[in-house]
Amino acid sequence: MKNTLLKTAFAVVLYVLGSALAYSDVLYDDLALSQDGSGNSNNTLGDSFSTGTNTSPLSDVKLVLVANNPSDGGSVQVGLYSDIGTPSTPNPGSLLLNIGSLADSSMASTYAVYDFSLATPYALADNTRYWVEVSSSNGSAEWVYSYSNGGVGVVNEYWFDGGAPQSNSGGPYLMSVTSVPLPASALMFAAGLLGFGVSRKKIQAA
Which of 38, 48, 51, 133 sits between 20 and 30 A of 58, alpha carbons compared? Predict the structure, then answer.
């Protein structure tokens, strides 16, 4: 009986945690827009996104990239940056997180989506603008942009290619930014189930 109870408790815990982790918030996504050109990452490229209230930790960034010369031995770096401007005059600030890097040799010479998944989600502040920047000092990687501005969280954001930030109405870079919440209620419920199962086991064994 006690083994059945513990198995049931663990199964419910796994279901609760799995359901919580499977749920995600899309903060920015224009991957489905037309692919109209690309910018050279040697200039340092950026696109902004903003959080809302009760924002969950950043968990995943996807970018549409291309390497004009995959055998050049170069690589591209992707980072999360703060914003030190105002809502109407944004300006990229300091590096907050190295999201990842990718060798040109791992990229195709045609436009493709590359996934930079964070091993440890990064806590984002509520109601805050951030920047995703792509840069390279020795490669041919480029970030693909669109002349459209549809998608989730795109319209009121900005892009730049080493110069002053421009409104996304002029051609945002193609990316998606996802956060994954783990509700405190789910954790408390799971912990309670585990505690109940362990307590029952101790009582019956005594």
Answer: 38
Domain of residue 91 covers 25-181
Nearest of 55, 32, 58 to residue 146 by alpha carbon: 32
Would you say residue 4 lies in a domain? no
The helix-helix angle for 2-22 and 184-205 (nearest 10°) equals 170
The answer to whether residue 12 sits within a structural domain is: no
Given a contact cutoff of 8 angstroms between Cβ atoms, the answer to whether 26 and 154 are in contact is no
Is pLDDT of 69 > 50? yes
pLDDT at site 174: 98
Number of domains in the chain: 1
In terms of DSSP H, where are the helices of the chain?
A: 2-22, 184-205
Write down the mean pLDDT value for the chain. Answer: 83
Residue 19 counted as domain residue? no
Mean pLDDT of 79-101: 96
Compute the residue count for the chain. 206
Instruction: Reduce the DSSP state of residue 49 to 3 states and report it.
Output: strand
pTM equals 0.78
| Per-residue pLDDT tens digits for 116-142 | 999 999 999 999 999 999 999 888 999
Residue at 15 is within a domain: no
Distance CA 174, CA 78 (A): 14
Task: Assign residue 153 the CATH number of its domain.
Answer: 2.60.120
Q: How far apart are CA 199 and CA 177, in angstroms?
A: 42
Candidates 153, 132, 154; CA nearest to 143 is 132
Beta bridge partners of 114: 63
